[in-house]
Amino acid sequence: MIVVEGAPTIGGTTAKSAGAYWIPNNQFMRAAGTTDPKMDAIRYMVRDGFPARYREDLPNLGIEANEFALIEAYYDNSAKIIESLEAAGAIRSVIAAVYDYFDHTDLNKAPRGRALVPLKPDGTWGRGSELVHQLKEWLADKPVKFLLKHRVTGIERNAKGEVIGLAASDPKGDTVLLRANKAVIGVKIETRPQSGPLKGTTQAAVVEVSPGSPASQSTLKAGDVITKVDQRSVTSANEVVAAVLSHAPGDKVTLTLSDGRTVDIVLGSQPSN
Ligand SMILES: Cc1cc2nc3c(=O)[nH]c(=O)nc-3n(C[C@H](O)[C@H](O)[C@H](O)COP(=O)(O)OP(=O)(O)OC[C@H]3O[C@@H](n4cnc5c(N)ncnc54)[C@H](O)[C@@H]3O)c2cc1C
User: Fold this and answer.
1) For 183-271, which CATH superfamily applies?
2) What's the CATH architecture for 1-12+129-179?
3) DSSP 8-class letter at 210
4) What ligand 1 atom has the least distance to the C-alpha of 22?
5) What residue ranges of the chain are covered by domains with CATH 2.30.42.10?
6) What would the pLDDT profile of 114-150 be if each residue is shown by its tens digit?
């Protein structure tokens, strides 16, 4: 997984915030014996989120079905997300002994407990910076790469219009393509030294064609020597790999072989590291 961040540090506005997360019916409330039934929390969110439209007597309390569904999904899932992050050791939270913004209203049936804050190791409350710090620490030994000072500039799509990655501007201002999946042909290639008059040079030889791979659908076979990928001359395994990786999965490439054959292959896809 890659986190692409335009700023020199991670965390964005979250790291600058007070760091309180409003989670109805969360595990800490339940442990403290506070109940927070679904419709109580939903009424509170709808009326204070949409005060001009809230109507107890109308379907969806007066708001659109999709707006209601979003609020319902928040009630159903936000506590589960916090629970799983807590269980994984990614964050440590505590009930903030503060009031809600609309604590004075009659629909606030759970005046304490929905607002959580990060708990620091010394037992005091943290702010947004502590939340970001805890998440970053937890990710330290996970296969997550942070690309800082990389500003996303566009979305990459394949020929079918499907999103396959991002284009970003690196710290030097050069464009880098970050693809979710890389293009593969499905062969093992090695760089072989040449002999005779070509001594001192190398060639890209196919060692194995993986069964079921895109290459296996073609006439490419072990022992073939690839001299070109499209119009690009190649003399090593690395050059073949680089030429293939410059394409997106689903693209067609034409390989030229040393015996004069040309082979068309539609590239397959494999998750990028
Ligand atoms: C002082 C303050 C206190 C607050 N307190 C609270 C609170 O207690 N509780 C609460 O719920 N909310 C609070 N908020 C609001 C809350 O912080 C924000 O709503 C929330 O952080 C937004 O999170 P986000 O992930 O959407 O955006 P952000 O946290 O802003 O993250 C967006 C990230 O994307 C990066 N980015 C932008 N463009 C690009 C690009 N092109 N390429 C790569 N990266 C890019 C930015 O650098 C940033 O890191 C507070 C806000 C402030 C300012």
Assistant:
1) PDZ domain (2.30.42.10)
2) 3-Layer(bba) Sandwich (3.50)
3) -
4) 11
5) 183-271
6) 999 999 999 999 999 999 999 999 999 998 989 999 9
Residue nearest to atom 33 of ligand 1 (CA): 12
Please list the residue range(s) of the chain that carry CATH number 3.50.50.60. Answer: 1-12+129-179
User: What spacing in Å lies between the alpha carbon of 12 and ligand 1's midpoint?
Assistant: 5
Question: Quick one: which atom of ligand 1 is closest to the CA of 4?
Answer: 43
Inter-residue contact 164 to 180 (CB < 8 Å)? yes
Nearest CA to ligand 1 atom 31: 12
H and E: helices and strands count for the chain? 6, 16
Q: Which of 128, 81, 68 is nearest to 136 (CA)?
A: 128
88 CA from centroid of ligand 1 (Å): 24
The answer to whether the CB of 241 is under 6 A from ligand 1 is no
Distance 105 CA to ligand 1 centre (A): 28
Output the pLDDT for position 273. 61
Pocket probe for ligand 1: among 13, 21, 148, the residue whose CB has the most ligand atoms within 8 Å is 13
Which tokens hold the place of 87?
A: 């269980």
Report yes or no: 47 and 183 within 8 Å, Cβ to Cβ: no
169 Cβ inside 6 Å of ligand 1: no
Q: pTM for this structure?
A: 0.77
Q: Residue 26 has which token pair?
A: 């969360």
Query: pLDDT tens, 205-244?
Result: 999 999 999 999 999 999 999 999 999 999 999 999 999 9
Provide the pLDDT for residue 180. Answer: 82
